[in-house]
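Priority: low. Protein: Polysaccharide export protein. Input follows.
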Amino acid sequence: MTNKFHPLKIILLPYLVVILMPQGIAWSQNSSSSENQTPLQPLLPTLQTDEPSNFPSVPRGYEPRPFEERNAQHLNDYRLDFGDSINVSVARFPEFNFSGTLDAQGNVVVPILGRISLRGLTTEEVENKISFELANRYLREPPQVLAVLAGQRPFNLTVIGEVTRPGYYTVSDGIPMSSLLTLAGGTTDKADIRSILIRRRLADETIVEEKLDLYRPLIEGTSEPRIRLQPGDTVIVSSLEVGQDQDYDRFFISRTNVPQPLIRVRVVAPTGAAGATLRNINIPNGSTFLDAVALLPEFIPLVTNNEVTLMRFDPELGEVVSQSINVRQTLQGGDMAQNVPLREDDVIVVSRTLLGRILGGIRVITQPIRDIFGFTNFIQDTIDGRLFDRRNNNFRF
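Result:
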């Protein structure tokens, strides 16, 4: 009985090979398609394994490549995810047309094909995938497919660095960088908008960064660079390094809609009996000394007082600098050289006596003033009497 079945096995073997070949070919096509798909490669050196949120500022000595719209396709491609809606049409086969929204798993229901995953794909990749699936299952050749993004999901990203309100923000697709900075309260006085970093984690877990320049378009009057922000992006506004502001017009930038809309200026004025008061006033960013004069309370005798000094901490010099201002001459004579543009945390001192007290304290304090925070704290402590003893006009050290 066994010998009778040997010829049958030999005869059936070629037919089994023929039957299995189409499945093997299909599997080979699917396998090669997935294997030949080149992963996204970073255009910049890959950072260490630290999460993006672990970088509070830009590492010194690291210079990402400048953003260029023509060469930044990896930053401008929009990738689908939960909540996105798409419209898909198939040429000559309207029965495959559909509209759908990606579910929490990134899937969408396609007529006849069923449920397929589109998470992480661009619209062009969606077209290729659906065309391949239709040709692989039902059609003789790949059809022409058109996919259009019909509805975009809001997404979360992080804004840190020199902005007034760093944190997490929920935004819509297509938001301009300038609008995002406004949403974060605007840039601070120490921001360098020539270097705004966009940090992104790609699908293959690599991290890329590019540098966006908003300063040059503002100076030259050209359009804002277009960059498509994505979920999980981290936007970092760099600090203006000491010695790097020679070609940086702070006053011009302060009058645009990019920085914070208001700045705080402090006014130190006498109150009688050797007393002093410290007032904080909020003025529009880009204001000058005369703009601040117009907003001062009436009880401060500034307009009729010629003994006025403007003080600020100069980070380049690493010390407090001052400038005397003749208010009457500035108002009546139109001396615009003394109408100084104001910055955040500038201090206006009314009275030479108060100025002498403050400058004397700066000379004798045991801990030097090294930054703007030390300067503002010193002014506050001096006026509050924590450093100055009004009974004997001496500093407490």
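The chain has three domains: 79-151, 155-254, 262-395. The radius of gyration is 33 Å.
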